[in-house]
Amino acid sequence: MVVKVSLRNVSNFALRDVSVDFLPGEASIVIGPNGSGKTTLLKVIAGLAPHNGDVYFNENRVNSLPAYKRNVLYVPQKSALFMHMKVWDNVAFCLKVRKIDNDAVAEKVRWIMKRLSIEHLSSRYPSQLSGGEAKRVAIARALVCNGNPLLLDEMESNLDYNVRVSISEEALRLAKELGLTLVMVTHDLDWAFRKADKIVYLWSGRISYSGPPSLLDPLSIEPEALAWLGSVLRAEVFINDDFSYAVINGFKVPLNQVFTNEAMSASKIYISSRDALVDEHGKIEGKVLHKAIIHGMERVIVDIGDGVIVAKNTSMSINVGDKVRIKVLNAVPLKT
Q: Cβ distance 151 to 74 under 8 Å?
């Protein structure tokens, strides 16, 4: 069943007056610093966290509906597999609870395990799995239950970067294929800005931005929140086999090579605040609009004339109004 998820004026111990829609077939990616309410947002949708305000599935208010009746597919950060069950039995669990015919169970389990490339793990116990394998099993166990929406909390930080990206890509493809409403949490801002249909940016429990990545207006976001996030700006993008780049104020900025094969029509880029540095040898010049301390490091918001860039400052004494030079290490081309 197609499901539109709507939150209206939701507040609790972590969230403050959150109103947002998650649409069918849309990849909504929730970002924000630790403690901003990302996991709590998923738990509110799943019926696992108390709250004021309303949650709707389509036009049906589900506040009083217990978690087990919401038919939500929820994959927590820790995979939470049943340690005494083999992989096959973990994946088949919800189907067996529903007393589905054994032949139908076997067919569904084989299908999802093949799609997630985990058939060879069927006779192993969770203790015999790597972190990436366990996450794939957890996603398979959720998807086989035929629910909607699909809620994916962020990957464990100890997983290899390439493994995290691979699993996220697989989950996104399957959600699209199955027509699920996908709400995913991640700390990988580059991947989120490139892949999301909608970014939901939580800052101190409130939504700072909700919408397509390419439509984000940096100056509509409070300075401290922008200092954590980074910025979106318009740029010419050039894709070449040997070197792909964007042009900002006449200067070339390298593009993240992971995404250049998808960037032929890009006209905007995202620059994370970790990928721009105040550097006296930098080629891009601008004027400091704001300063903020994020995780013990100063970040400055710099007006470069045709947009703003958020840059780390590790060495200079800078005041608002000063002119500085910036070196950009990496940019992500955005979908348009």
A: yes
Q: What gap in Å lies between CA 24 and CA 28, rounded to an integer? A: 10
Q: 109-118: list long-range contacts, CB under 8 Å, 24+ apart.
A: 109/144, 112/140, 112/143, 112/144, 113/87, 113/88, 113/140, 115/140, 115/170, 115/174, 116/140, 116/170, 116/174, 118/87
219-to-27, 154, 230 alpha-carbon distances in Å: 25, 28, 11
65-124 pLDDT, tens digit per residue, is: 999 999 999 999 988 999 999 999 999 999 999 999 999 999 999 999 999 999 999 999
In a domain, 276, yes or no: yes
Beta bridge partners of 237: 246
Do the domain assignments include residue 216? no
What SS3 class is residue 232? strand
Domain assignment present for residue 287? The answer is: yes
**32 lies in some domain:** yes
Residues 328/309, Cβ–Cβ less than 8 Å: yes
Q: Give dist(CA 196, CA 223) in Å, integer.
A: 23
What total of structural domains would you count in the chain? 2
